[in-house]
């Protein structure tokens, strides 16, 4: 997959955002999930429940109307880390034993994501908030899996190499794929309180970055095959603009209802694509373009309880299905290697499904010093069998989330801890006819493939730990 960056819009405060991006870009800090379950430690412990609850400066990025529920000046900052446990399995069964293989690869990835947010009162009825954070991303890939050559020929015949012995005569090779993608947001917003009603709006400055890599090795995995594979990297000018709108209404002192809307944003990505690596005869470099769509999201929330005990429910809907079904990737030159030959236009069939979810949160202030929280969420799967691939990562498993955490209060500080677990493991079997299925078949003619013996599947769990602090100034 390739993602285009095209300079369509300029950010509010681009220097601040770019400095933040540059800080982590060498390791590509991100989380696996396309969108995170929660930004801060408090909401992590509540399994992401936040829409009607409020009370945190990061509300500017979630439901800006809730800034009115936070009294005085507050600064919040912290670091979340998601540990993603992926397992990828595939096999090719054939009557010819030289084509048969099995892979079973397990991987573990740590994906840190820092955040900082500030809430300031403007007047008695107007509040301002600003936040800088990473809403999500993806880290996926497989490392040196066994596969047949795309044509079913020997390594030497397929790649035009001259490797001696059984290695050059083998019809099998090793493949490595990696996909690293991250989004960073700088959000500014206002909330206006009108009696029992609060209304808020935020403007988002959005930055995206992505790197993709594919390499082929001989069957021993020691020698990278020259003239094969590709590398893609987006440019440093991937800026766009989005927004968040929200309302919160207090029916009584104990019962509130809220709604928030996250707008659709196209992240323009222009980058370069290198093809035929490590061989001056095959090597090509060309521009590539694509716009990655972050879908709109609707959240309806309810919160009930006195000051020291809160029950909260969120109903969410994210419209992935309207934006991430298919992606058309355009190269400046017809050099993109695909199962159908080298092309300038290649379709990536992402096949995302729109996602619905139910989030439940409970917060109890035990004393002046201690607060504990519990949460659970159920999310329908955004990726199923017809969208699975080796670089999908773990976001397709964001399914059942169990969470908990505590806060310790002293002076003007709150030290917060939130932990969530995405599990149990959910196994997804890949469908026939997908991009991944075709790319691992044996091409037997211009448009004919032998993939009947190929099958694949994956499973993933995610453990997220979020540590933060909040400082009041009143």
TrEMBL record:
Keywords: Cell outer membrane, Membrane, Signal, Transmembrane, Transmembrane beta strand
SUPFAM superfamilies recorded: Porins
InterPro entries: OMPP1/FadL/TodX (IPR005017)
Superkingdom assignment: Bacteria
Principal location: membrane
GO molecular function terms noted in the UniProt entry: long-chain fatty acid transporting porin activity
Cellular compartments annotated: Cell outer membrane
A single GO cellular-component term on record: cell outer membrane
Gene3D superfamilies with a match to the protein in the record: Outer membrane protein transport protein (OMPP1/FadL/TodX) (2.40.160.60)
Membrane topology: Multi-pass membrane protein
Family that this chain belongs to: Belongs to the OmpP1/FadL family.
Protein name stated in the entry: Transporter
């Amino acid at each position: 997959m390739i993602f285009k960056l095209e300079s369509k819009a300029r950010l509010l405060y681009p220097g601040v955002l770019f400095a933040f991006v540059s800080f982590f870009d060498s390791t590509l800090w991100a989380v696996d999930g396309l969108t995170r379950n929660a930004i801060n430690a408090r909401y992590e412990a509540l399994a992401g429940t936040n829409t009607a609850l409020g009370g945190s400066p990061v509300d500017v990025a979630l439901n800006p109307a809730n800034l009115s529920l936070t009294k005085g000046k507050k600064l919040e900052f912290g670091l979340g880390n998601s540990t993603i446990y992926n397992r990828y399995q595939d096999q090719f069964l054939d009557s010819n034993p030289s084509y048969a293989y099995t892979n079973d690869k397990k991987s573990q990835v740590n994906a840190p994501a820092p955040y900082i947010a500030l809430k300031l009162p403007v007047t008695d009825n107007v509040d301002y908030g600003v936040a800088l954070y990473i809403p999500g991303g993806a880290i996926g890939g497989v490392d040196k899996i066994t596969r047949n050559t795309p044509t079913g020929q020997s390594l030497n015949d397929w790649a035009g190499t001259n490797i001696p012995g059984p290695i050059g005569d083998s019809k099998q090779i090793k493949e490595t794929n990696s996909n690293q993608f991250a989004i960073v947001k700088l959000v500014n917003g206002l909330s206006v309180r009108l009696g029992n009603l609060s209304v808020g709006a935020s403007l988002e400055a959005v930055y995206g970055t992505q790197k993709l890599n594919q390499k082929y090795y001989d069957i021993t995995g020691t020698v990278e095959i020259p003239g094969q594979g590709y590398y893609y990297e987006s440019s440093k000018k991937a800026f766009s603009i989005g927004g968040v709108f929200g309302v919160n209404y207090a029916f009584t002192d104990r019962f509130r209802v809220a709604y928030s809307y996250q707008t659709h944003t196209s992240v323009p990505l222009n980058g370069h694509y290198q093809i035929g690596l490590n061989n001056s005869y095959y090597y090509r470099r060309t521009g590539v373009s694509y716009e990655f769509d972050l879908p709109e999201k609707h959240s309806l929330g309810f919160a009930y309880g006195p000051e020291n005990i809160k029950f909260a429910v969120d109903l969410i809907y994210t419209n992935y299905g309207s934006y991430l079904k298919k992606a058309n990737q355009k190269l400046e030159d017809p050099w993109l290697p695909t199962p159908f030959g080298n092309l300038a236009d290649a379709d990536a069939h992402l096949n995302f499904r729109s996602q619905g979810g139910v989030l439940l949160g409970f917060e109890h202030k035990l004393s002046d010093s201690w607060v504990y929280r519990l949460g659970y969420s159920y999310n329908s799967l955004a990726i199923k069998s017809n969208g699975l691939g080796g670089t999908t990562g773990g976001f397709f498993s964001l399914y059942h989330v169990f969470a908990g955490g505590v806060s310790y209060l002293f002076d003007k500080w709150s030290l917060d801890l939130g932990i969530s677990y995405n599990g149990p493991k959910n196994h997804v079997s890949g469908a026939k006819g997908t991009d991944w299925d075709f790319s691992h078949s044996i091409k037997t003619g211009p448009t004919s493939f032998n993939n009947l013996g190929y099958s694949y599947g994956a499973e993933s769990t995610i453990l997220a730990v979020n540590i933060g602090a909040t400082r009041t100034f009143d």
